[in-house]
Amino acid sequence: MAGADGRVTVVRRGTLGAPLVLAIGPMLRPVLKATTDLDVTVAYAATVRPLDAEALRWLAAAKVAIVEPYLEGTSLGAIASALGDRPRRFLAIGVPNEEHRHYGTPLDHLRALGLDAAGI
After folding, report:
1. Residue 27's closest CA among 1, 55, 54?
2. What is residue 72's predicted lDDT score, i.e. its pLDDT?
3. Distance CA 104, CA 110 (A)
4. Maximum CA pair distance of the chain?
5. Is the pLDDT of residue 94 over 80?
6. Among candidates 3, 13, 1, 78, which has minimal Cα distance to 42?
7. Residue 92 vs residues 4, 8, 72, 74, 95: alpha-carbon distances, Å
8. How is 85-108 classified by DSSP, letter by letter?
9. Concatenated DSSP letters for 60-81?
């Protein structure tokens, strides 16, 4: 896996032109589970800052989904800026911008936020 330096690593490659799903930090396992039967390229970055913009430009398709473990859209500005050379559609999946008072295990928390494999 990539280190904390922001490098992007391809975990699973889809067909040419397949959408890119970028899993940030601990979201890799749920992303892999959620995309098992989908034709997508899955990439992983331990962190988005600093951003491996060169790798993203090389990987990114016309459709890019970012799955992040914090407030949805947090990383979208940096990623969109790095991929601004041509039109793309983005989907930001993360913690919804609403108050949550769910307690339990970490998996219960991810499920309540919609960040488990079923929610993604």
Report:
1. 1
2. 94
3. 10
4. 43
5. yes
6. 13
7. 21, 17, 6, 8, 10
8. TS--EEEEEEE-SS-----S-HHH
9. --SEEEEEEEEETTTTHHHHHH
Q: What residues pair up with 95 in beta bridges, in sequence order?
A: 71
The amino acid occupying position 4 is: A
Report the b/e string of 56-67 with b at 16+ CB within 10 A.
Answer: beebbbeebbbb
Place of tokens 């600093």: 50
CA dist 79 and 76 (Å) reads 5
Query: Cβ of 14: how many Cβ atoms within 10 Å?
Result: 17
* Strands (E) located in 4-56: 8-12, 20-24, 41-45
pTM of the shown model? 0.87
CA distances to 19, 33, 82 from 117, rounded to whole Å, are 18, 6, 27
Q: What pairs with residue 65 in β-bridges? A: 21, 91
In one-letter notation, the amino acid at residue 24 is I
Instruction: Determine the number of helices (DSSP H) and then strands (DSSP E) in the chain.
Output: 4, 5
Q: Could you tell me which residue, 100 or 28, shows the higher pLDDT? A: 28
What is the per-residue pLDDT for 27?
96
